[in-house]
Design goal:
Helices cover 45% and strands 16% of the residues. The strands form three sheets. Strands 3-1-2-4-5-7-6 form a seven-stranded antiparallel sheet, with helices on both faces. A three-stranded antiparallel sheet has the order 8-11-12. A three-stranded antiparallel sheet has the order 9-10-13. The longest helix has 21 residues. By secondary structure, it is α+β, with helices and mostly antiparallel strands.
């Protein structure tokens, strides 16, 4: 069993309880467990995992008991977030088997087969990168997949607020991103068509259906269009090289282990601009308030170091590496806001988008650019 962690000194933590051979997260919805494990019981899927109907009922009982009468701290194992953590993790369930060093993700009953297959494919693809957890097995029906359980300490637990210490992890982070560049040849796209696609407002109907006011949605659309318009005037015409990116690369998605940094949350792996992961690595710390007053210079040093490494190891990416840094930074802004706008709509997500846009404008002012 893992060593218990003091929840008061930890950041992103979930509480788990022994159920059979598994640890089950109690910070999951009871209704979701009821639909998946009892009302929608699929004998083929659950039997293949060794989950009997009795165990399924016990899982629901433990979740319900935690909601109705929370137990003392000693009742739980308190652990950092481990595994790939796909975007639907809070609508699914993770079962930890520490004896086998595995973690199994069971998709919630509301997840479509295509969504599950997409996440499974992303997890398989991530295994080409040494720092990613190993992919082990998947259900042919796309109901679950199993991966390596990564032992370690969440990287953000080791970073003092406003210290800028995230730079000490940069060597490991850089190696991961350089490995990603080796995974697949660059995708060449028309630059203007690409930014037009990123600023597309197809997400608007989903946000309206979710009950958000048109004014709130217009704020997101206006920002995307303002970045697209600026890039249309400043991005060199012609072709743009897109490389393999993590999609949400940051210390929030990193585990510090004895063998170095391991990266989780790979459901967003796919083509993106060369510097998008590097900017996200730094801006995430800016977003969570873990950077110091020298953030501008710290970010500059990170970008320059990554540029030099890319030019040395991937000379064919020279055109992408040498692009104007204001251009590539704002290309990241466009990619990031669009990625979030396409996710499941929640009030919290809207707040994250709103805060991110404000943060991007604040950074533009700090660096001497006119905010968009």
């Amino acid at each position: 069993m893992p060593q218990k962690i003091d929840a008061m000194s930890a950041g992103m933590k979930y509480r788990y309880r022994d159920i059979g051979k598994y640890l089950v997260c109690v910070d999951q919805t009871v209704t979701g467990a009821l639909r998946r494990f009892i009302l929608g019981y699929d004998s083929n899927m659950l039997d293949s995992l060794g989950i009997s109907k009795l165990l399924a009922r016990n899982i629901v009982k433990v979740l319900a008991k935690n909601r109705l009468r929370p137990q003392s701290a000693d009742y739980y194992e308190v652990l950092p977030v481990f595994g790939h953590l796909g975007m639907y993790v809070h609508r699914g369930f993770k079962l930890f088997d520490f004896e086998a060093s595995t973690v199994t993700k069971i998709f919630a009953s509301g997840i479509s087969k295509s969504e599950a297959e997409q996440e499974i494919a992303a997890s398989r693809e991530a295994c080409a990168v040494r720092q990613a957890p190993r992919f082990i097995a998947a259900d042919p029906g796309s109901d679950w997949f199993t991966e390596e359980y990564v032992r370690g300490i969440h990287a953000t637990d080791l970073v003092a607020p406003k210290s800028g210490d995230y730079l000490r992890y940069y060597a490991d982070a850089e190696n991961c991103l350089l490995e990603l560049l080796e995974c697949k040849a660059p995708t060449v796209v028309d630059a203007m068509s690409h930014i037009t696609d990123l600023a597309d407002n197809a997400y608007r109907d989903r946000w309206l259906d979710a009950g958000f006011a048109r004014q709130e949605i217009d704020g997101i659309s206006h920002y995307l269009e303002s970045v697209r318009s600026w890039l249309a005037d400043n991005l060199p015409a012609g072709h743009l090289q897109l490389v393999r990116t993590h999609g949400d690369f940051s210390l929030v998605n990193a585990i510090s282990t004895e063998s170095g940094l391991r990266i989780i949350d790979w459901e967003g792996i796919g083509p993106g601009s060369l510097y998008s992961d590097i900017y996200n690595f730094a801006f995430a710390e800016y977003y969570y308030g873990r950077t110091g007053p020298d953030f501008v210079s710290e970010l500059g040093s990170v970008i320059e170091r990554f540029r030099a490494a890319v030019l040395e190891r991937k000379p064919k990416l020279r055109n992408a590496a040498m692009m104007n840094q204001t251009v590539v930074r704002r290309l990241y802004y466009l990619e990031r806001v669009r990625l979030m706008a396409n996710r499941d709509v929640t009030t919290n997500l809207y707040s994250v988008i709103e805060k991110s846009i404000a943060m991007f404008n604040e950074f533009d002012r700090d660096i001497g650019d006119v905010p968009l």
